[in-house]
Design goal:
Elements: H1 2-20, E1 28-33, E2 38-46, E3 50-55, E4 58-63, E5 67-78, H2 80-102, H3 117-142, E6 144-151, E7 158-165, E8 171-178
Antiparallel strand pairs: 1-2, 1-5, 2-3, 3-4, 5-6, 7-8
Length: 185
């Protein structure tokens, strides 16, 4: 009788651990395989030896032994201000530098004077910045980056609790626990 209680208590303790180990990450996943292939999709099923993704209606099975990393998509992140002001700054610097380098005055009656390179740079920078505003708006709207977070997959342990009737009319309880061997590195 004591061994039955010990066996029952062991199952009661181990069963939730085995079932909880198979909780999967939600959302879009990006899987990098050992051969360098990258597959992105939504998680359909996570079995002990296979990760099943869906991408545009196509089901893709990936062997867990071939997976190098798994990342979960956190969402898109726009960087409008950074791209907008960066484009304006680049436009201002390019046109200002071109204006200063191309400024050539050999007499004193030039509008900016004989050594007016600084003034030519300033005027060119203002013009370049104004001209780059539409480019900055377009680049700022188009600039989107996605953020990904690396996740750890649960262990590939296959756990099952088996219940059936025994020949003497009682209940037989069994446990199936498969622990795969590690792949050689």
């Amino acid at each position: 009788m004591t061994t039955r209680w010990i066996f029952g208590a062991s199952i009661a303790i181990l069963a939730p651990l085995g079932l909880d180990a198979q909780t999967a990450p939600n959302g879009d996943l990006r899987v990098r395989q050992a051969d360098g292939t990258v597959i992105t999709g939504t998680l359909v099923e996570m079995a002990p030896g296979v990760l099943r993704l869906e991408d545009a209606g196509v089901i893709i099975d990936i062997e867990r032994s071939r997976i190098r990393t798994v990342e979960r998509r956190l969402g898109s992140h726009g960087s409008f201000a950074k791209s907008f002001f960066g484009s304006i700054g680049v436009g201002a610097l390019l046109v200002g530098a071109a204006s200063a380098l191309s400024y050539d005055c050999t007499s004193d009656d030039c509008w900016l004077g004989r050594d007016g390179h600084e003034g030519a740079f300033a005027i060119g920078a203002i013009v370049g910045g104004v001209v780059a505003i539409p480019v900055g708006v377009a680049v700022g709207i188009a600039a989107q980056s996605e953020r990904w977070e690396e996740v750890t997959l649960p262990p590939t342990t296959d756990f099952a609790l088996l219940l059936r009737s025994s020949p003497d009319g009682g209940v037989a309880v069994g446990v199936r626990l498969t622990i795969p061997r590690r792949p050689r590195s």
